[in-house]
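As a warm-up, study this chain.
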Amino acid sequence: MKKIKRRAYSALLVAICLIAGMGVYIYRFATQGESWANFSANEAVWSNGKIITGTLTDRNGILLSGNENGKRSYAEDDAVRIACLHAVGDPGGNIGTGALRCFPDALSGYSALTGLKSGGGELALSIDAKLCAVAYDALAGHSGAVLLSDYTTGEILCMVSSPSYDVNLGFPADNPAYDGVYLNRTLSAAYTPGSVFKLVTLAAALETIGDLKSRSFVCEGSVLVDGNQINCTGVHGAQTIEQALAHSCNCAFAQLSLELGGDTLAAYAERYGFTAPLSLSGIATAAGKFEAAAPGSAALAWSGIGQSTDLVCPYALLRYVSAVAGGGELTQPSILAHPDRSTEQLINAATAADIKAMMNYAVAYSYGAQNFPGLKLCAKSGTAEVGDGTSHAWFTGFLDDPAHPYAFVVVMENAGGGLRNAGAAANTVLQAAVGN
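Now compare it with the structure written out below.
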């Protein structure tokens, strides 16, 4: 009898272990099955470390990349291949922000019920391929970046980095014009911002300096700070804060920077996401930089103007102007079509309203609305001196237009004046986006 009991207990123990083991397997299959199927050794998904399955399209269904006979293929239109390279990814997997590297699970088409889908999955990016081609052409051969998004949905409609190349022709390795071609400058670069950073200094001043709107700022063409001369773009005389922003007056913003102090400016830069790495649909971006300079120093004055050691990632600036456009509320950007809407209050609503009004005033008062026909534009230009005798050209802002709720950033390396160069490129892209 005892022997029978022992055998029964042993059988029961074995059964319990089998059930427990099956439970562990089912749990791990449910939670890790996708990663098992997409393991890099799976030749149905990967070849030499590159994903070969799945179809990638733009928001309108234009094929950006597919699978032909086990090999990765790209868009038919050469202009689309070139303009969308950094959003899609290169054949060698060198572009770390490309969809082919960042979204392999979606491209494999894995399902817990059916396993891997024959031919892979289908993934639609939020970008408009034809708009990206317009943007790449608008950069006119300059290295740089263009971003444009719908600030109400967060969808990135245009993400272009230059230089690029045609993957069907191969990488021209011996041509120095293609140096840095694998760097996605919209997400993975940080530039001296110049006067576009004055939008951050302005926000800090609006919330910290009580009489800001009633003050008169006098510009005589330059100001001496700690024995160093800070030159302005002109002699602006007495001006309001609205006029100072429209003039992009270095004298006024140097004064504000000294009054605010480095710690306050650094806190605002951090609060708005300019100094830490950010994320776009899980893709990590470059961090910016702002150093709190000593009180009363020329470095402090220059830092609030957007010079000194300041660095800004174009994507961080897009988030900021998107929040201004949205009344302070940021709809998180996405590179994927039809994302789940996620929001945060990035900027105080009253502050955002003031900045929005001043950016609109800058267009009417300084930039010339006739230069942006048919566009309800709020904008800020920037000409960032980079220490080699050249300047990066910036232009950023948004359309105050419910039918076309677009925020944008354009930066052109070593191109000169922001309004003249980046402003013209932005107008070209915006006109295409609204269908003018």
